[in-house]
Amino acid sequence: RGAAKARGGSAARAHARAAARRVAPRALGGDKRVEHAADNVADLEGILAERDACGVGVVASLKNEASHRVISESLAALGCMEHRGACSADDDSGDGAGIMTQVPWKLLAGWAKEQGLPEPQQGTHGVGMVFLPKNDEERATEFKAIMDKAVKDAGLDVVGWRKVPVDHEVVGKFAADTEPAIEQIIVDGCGLTGDELERKLFEARKLAESAHRAVLKEDEDPRGFYVCTLSGRTIVYKGMLRSVVVGMYFQDLVNTDYETAFSIYHRRFSTNTTPKWPLAQPMRFLGHNGEINTVQGNLNWLAGREASLEHPLWEGREHVLSRVGDPGNSDSANLDRIAEVLVRSGRDPEEAMMICVPEAYRNHPELLEQFPEAKEFYEFYSGAQEAWDGPALMVFSDGKTVGATLDRNGLRPARFWQTADDMVYIASEVGVVQQDPANTVSKGRLGPGQMFSVNLETGVARENAAIKKDVGTKAPYAEWLQSRRSYSDSPWSGEVPEEAEVLKQQTMFGYGAEDVQMVLHEMAANGKEPTFSMGDDIPLAVLSSKPHLLYDYFKQRFAQVTNPPIDPLREGLVMGLDMCLGARGNLLEPSEELCSQVHVDSPVINEAELEQIKADEKLGTVTIPIFFENAGEGSMKKALDDVCAQAEAAVAAGCQLVVLSDKRALDDYSVGEVNIPALLSVGAVHHHLISKGMRASTSIAIETAQAFSTHHMACLVGYGASAICPYLALAICRSWHAAAKTQTMMRRGKVPQVSMDGAQDNYRNGLNAGLKKIISKMGISLLSSYHGAQIFEAYGIGGDALDTGFRGSVSRLRGMSLDD
């Protein structure tokens, strides 16, 4: 891409940074979808390459009157968004630009007449926009045959194929190297109409994608065949173009017979990637300006829950929902895929976006006063769908509704206005469409978590309060939430262990004197992490001659480029550490079962809370010891396989919480049998259950002496643990408080006066504050979104160790195997 992006690249970066700174006040097993779960584990190295910060907007007629004016204004607005995108070093290949509209039936009718084909009709036909290999006609013909067969297998008929007229001369040199041949497939719905036709067209596209994967050659680009859209309502024209040439390249767009009642336009700025034609936007359902920081975790959870996705509307055809997420696609594309599945399964677009990108509903007086129903809605889904978190402005449409929403922090700008001639506009900024200010009848801006939408069928434009109140009253969420239990704030243990016993366990589990005195004692006394120097001058764990805990081989990632970190102190209102334990249920069909979980305010729980959770009958908790006999090569792998097999069997039997534990009486420890590292155990079970399609059916908790710092907790949560009981660290806090030296220091005022309960509470508070700091560095607000997101880079982990416990993580410096 060269040292810099030409023509607007530097300006785009400046605007993106400025925008980022604006913060406004079934049964398990036997399902074909399980076969794909292991392949769907997200690869962080690929994800790091797919981020963007862009310009987006909407033009819509409240009267739902199709006209070419909408196209003209959209192209003009898109041209004004050039500074929000970027170009390659050839000064002409855009990161991506495009436009979504209604299907141009009038234009297609003229084409059909020329070809002597039956005229495609709105409501009974569908149209697909398809990318095919440009320089391999034989392969393109094969892919078209795949598409034809998929359409027929879905119970529909192919009317014909239409070559989309384009001007190759306006494409930049680099973009031209990968330019596809673009054709449209016209599909007869065979009597189907409305939403059922849309579902059948969705099914046809998914069947075609599956068949295409099956015939891919080893070295073939999987993006050689790509279906931009296949719908009877919407169509997308997009490519690796500069915004000002979209209308020149796609000659349909300047044809006055091209008429639509709405459009979504998008100009892409891909911050860390080599752009690709399929990754240009809008996608099939939305256009996205921003970055989803939790995408790796979101993809892993999608893979884990695919086997549980069911809805009567699919009439047993849920197999087409396989590969909801695609690790090879961008964060925007994957958010689009899950939102599309929700909409095709009967959800309104506004509801789908509220499920995926919830606002900060806690500590929100205005929300509680104006539309408390929304809080119950968000609370209900908090345990079923982790938020797609990160700075984001999303504009969306299913062809019946068009709208926009902001992330919970409001870290992207969005303005909307309505004119006297019943036109509605939404844009990343004002001024993109030239208008007489006197013609504007209302205007506003989206604040954090807010939404604006237009129902094209009724002509009603709704702002945030009306939307949230409507969605929040569609089901008895408050009644269903009564089944959720909480065991937080259980009493702290007062049992003080023998000092010699504590010292033995500290040695066994790798605690150093500095760890105990400078970390644990400090947190017990003051309720916060100790402050260290900025430098980290010790060798990497893999290069050190000293023994290290496994956590030391992992480094936390942090927000970069256009992606702002969050201030956990000043922006604490939008942050949360609460977690839910239990099965996540079927996301497609809301019911009381979906929220029948145990809620905890923090992932760090004490011994009493753990015992109460274990005793919960609905969870059916199973505890699995994590030890192995050190019998030489292969013994660790054998032990991990056994732990994973026990977890799989427990979940198959209905267990909704697997507790991995290294706790046992001191006399029961032996030289020949030692503990499996807690982090490795959690990661191995997490990925094993994902590969079996069982992950959404259970939660993982860890009862361990092998974790005491905020980094340890972050690693365990990041690799799949929902709750952590650091029993040895808590015992050390109690031992510290009971020590005569500590009591003397308290009397002399050298350390704060705290009770034994207060010391343990301080320790947990310190961990909680540290966790908020860690997730905020990555621009993430919710620990539930950080959960399973694996936002780390490994240094010195390689081979089978990486594949077993940390699949999808980046390890640029390979090293230890399981035997090591």
Characterization of this structure:
The chain has 820 residues and is an alpha+beta fold. The chain is built from 27 helices and 28 strands. The protein has a seven-stranded antiparallel β-sheet, with helices on one face. A hairpin with a 3-residue loop joins strand 10 (392-397) and strand 11 (401-406). The protein starts with 8 loop residues before the first helix and ends with a strand. Residues 1-31 and 47-52 have low confidence and may be disordered.
Biggest sheet statistics = 7 strands, antiparallel
Low-pLDDT residue spans: 1-31, 47-52
Which structural class do the helices and strands define? alpha+beta
In angstroms, what is the radius of gyration?
Answer: 28 Å
User: How much helix, percentage-wise, in residues?
Assistant: 25-40%
The mean pLDDT is 88
The counted number of beta strands is 28
Strand percent estimate = 15-25%
Number of helical stretches of at least 4 residues: 27
CA(first)-CA(last) distance: 40 Å
Strand order of the largest sheet: 7-2-8-1-13-12-14
Q: What is the 3D shape?
A: elongated
Keywords:
34% helix; five-stranded antiparallel β-sheet; 28 strands; disordered N terminus; alpha+beta; 820 residues
